[in-house]
Amino acid sequence: xxxxxxxxxxxxxxxxxxxxxxxxxxxxxxxxxxxxxxxxxxxxxxxxxxxxxxxxxxxxxxxxxxxxxxxxxxxxxxxxxxxxxxxxxxxxxxxxxxxxxxxxxxxxxxxxxxxxxxxxxxxxxxxxxxxxxxxxxxxxxxxxxxxxxxxxxxxxxxxxxxxxxxxxxxxxxxxxxxxxxxxxxxxxxxxxxxxxxxxxxxxxxxxxxxxxxxxxxx
Length: 218
Fold this sequence. Notes:
Helix content is 32%, strand content 16%.
């Protein structure tokens, strides 16, 4: 094949910040760095963010015909989680090499709303069609009905680096993420409660114990 490999990255969301968005950017960046590749990023979300990488283009809110054209163009497809609207062509292109990365999964039988349960069954069908499935952790892997490989979520080493710290660290803990059950904020607080033991009598606003007791959203 006398041309670069054509990779289609499919992501159901693509603003400038966020976990899934960071994964798309890092995957594209590393493929460009390591191989001769052309990448199209397809997303149903509107926006203006662009990774500004050579050979990488972003295609937003494609029609079904445009989406079909992107799938035909690609040598392989990488799904950054699942979103039905941008996954449909795979159902009539079953031989297209596809890798599905999953960061959370609920079995269809455990979903209450019929619409979400129906979408869950379609996701299940896609899982069995995928050539490979990636789970972000053991919890997600154990829920999946197909064999999967654990690849933990990456971080951007260009943004998160260790810097020398003068004096003692304050011991503060920062939780960065949406307050939702799948992020594990509640489990984090419970773990601190077990580690720290009973709250001190002189607990004051601003302390870790005070923050735990007043975290109503968690």
